[in-house]
Amino acid sequence: MCGIVGYVGEKQAAPILLEGLSKLEYRGYDSAGIAVFDAGRIHVVKTKGRLAALSDMIDGGASITSQMGIGHTRWATHGEPSDVNSHPHISNSGKFAVVHNGIIENYFKLKEFLENRGYNFVSQTDTEVVAHLVDFYYDGDMLSTVTKVISRLEGSYALGIISCEHPDSFIAVRKDSPLIVGLGENENFIASDIPAILSRTRDVYLLEDNEIVILKKDNVSIYDIHGEPITKEIFHVDWDVSAAEKGGYEHFMFKEMMEQPKVLKDTIHPRIQDGNVVLDDISLTAEDIASFNKISIIGCGSAYHVGCVGKYVIEKLARIPVEVELASEFRYRFPIVDDKTLVIVISQSGETADTLAALRDAKKSGARIMSIVNVVGSSIARESDDVIYTWAGPEIAVATTKAYSTQLSVIYLIALYLADKKELLSAEDKKNYIDAMLALPDCVETVIGQKETIQYLASKFYNVKDVFYIGRGVDYAASMEGSLKLKEISYVHSEAYAAGELKHGTISLIEEGTLVVALCSVDMLFEKMLSNIKEVKARGAVVWALTFEGNTAIEAEADHVLYVPRTVMEFAPSCIVPALQLFGYYVSALRGLDIDKPRNLAKSVTVE
Ligand code: AGP
């Protein structure tokens, strides 16, 4: 996720672009840049690092004169943070500059197409293909040029494009990435989000997918994908600025939970092509995979919980033994790791000290290191042999939600990839799993669509003292994440427990009114879960059960039931956990706590 801005008007553009970008840094902050039209040419200034570094380079914008320009603050997806990978990207001719938020899924094929026609690439980004495509298709008219360009693009994009040929206007378009138009007095704007322009105007157009907009200082024209003019209602923004940075939501955590369907789609779809899992990110050969006699998955907190799901899924599909390790434990137990071990390191931040240290220990032992990371170019990413990025965008809330969910999807992709390379999947099974993967964003959309029901349940239980999350198989792994979400943001004690293990001691803690959250998505264990629910009910527990749609037998046993869309058993945590994230969120909200910044915690634990 990145932030883009654009300006055309009668004032100096550079300071306005910088101001807009400063309100979008929550969308990405590993590099920044602007491009302005000045004295007949496009002038680009961009740099790795925070926006302040860019501002210093141009004296807060004072050293650049121009009344039109575009700007960008980056969250790297393709190509790690660097000056050359920063946006804006410019065509070889210097005639066109582009800023982009999103992922061009077919950039590799487009890059080949353009290189074969003499275009030279200087960056590792997907976005650069757009700058050269504009040059390739330019026919004197930016509207017809852009309609041709976007007809070749697959994936998500919000684009701002300026051209030397059109010194008094610039063009923008969006598909699956947000873009708004700010309407001022003799000045107009584009931005990824409302905060960027709120100090300048409260009147905006909220662009829909495939809408193209041409902005002049005194005119804004909007067109559909075929170049036909369209008219739109002006939306008047009455939010305050801080609310706007959260997309109008009260907390970043809520905004990030709501982003899960989109970031799952961004993470999954580019990696499934023609019914196959395609992991261009990694260089494992079939021989490499055959040589592994085990997999060690390492992580902390929620990342560790993803590993716990991964164990079930990889062993079920790829039939490779999997150990899951807390990074802080792995380091000091003299692990048996060698060149026949594939170590999968999971980390949102890519900077967690225990996880990074465990990676280094495993690497010294000769293991092959593959990491699942959200922050491009982070330490863990750089020190891995292979890295598969979750394209979740910046996660601001301390409690992870969208990063956890995209990490799950990547671990499923790895399991399917390994199984396929080992030729363990029938064509039918493979299709079922691939179809289930592609359906996950919609499943999660349905689950978060039940937020009012979950909020109601939270209103009944937000004063509880102890909660037990129980499950079997992947549900047990999912219960760990549900328990952590409640603990870390609502400070309510809870415990995840293997449902079959309760009777071996812990059930003595169940008493009248104890809340038990029972995860019952594993069909072959459903009857056993019904028995476990009966066990705890007999001791006075109140049970909230989560299960797939259609499993109505649960209603005879549980006090409350939440149905989630059916998916394959292995992927059930992707449907169950978002409901538990919302439960923790609403309990915390009802307890009046600081949801985005819970006490005692930090977003990235860079100390041991
Ligand atoms: C999750 O909500 C917590 N914030 C925490 O457990 C986190 O998952 C853990 O610290 C690992 O962080 P990482 O993914 O950045 O390595």
Task: Explain what this protein looks like in three dimensions.
By secondary structure, this protein is an alpha/beta fold. It has 3 domains: 3-238, Aminohydrolase, N-terminal nucleophile (Ntn) domain (Glutamine Phosphoribosylpyrophosphate, subunit 1, domain 1), CATH 3.60.20; 240-448, 3-Layer(aba) Sandwich (Rossmann fold), CATH 3.40.50; 450-593, Rossmann fold, CATH 3.40.50.10490. It contains 19 helices and 27 strands. The strands form 5 sheets. An 8-stranded antiparallel sheet has the order 3-2-4-1-10-9-11-15, with helices on one face. Strands 5-6-7-8-12-13-14 form a 7-stranded antiparallel sheet. The protein has a 5-stranded parallel sheet with strand order 19-18-20-21-22, with helices on both faces. Helix 3 (107-115) crosses helix 4, helix 8 (260-268) runs antiparallel to helix 15 and helix 10 (301-318) runs parallel beside helix 14 (402-421). The longest helix has 22 residues, at 427-448. It is globular and about 80 Å long. The protein starts with a strand and ends in an 18-residue tail after the last helix. The structure holds 2-deoxy-2-amino glucitol-6-phosphate. 2-deoxy-2-amino glucitol-6-phosphate is lined by residues 300-303, 347-349, 352, 355, 398-400, 488, 604-605.
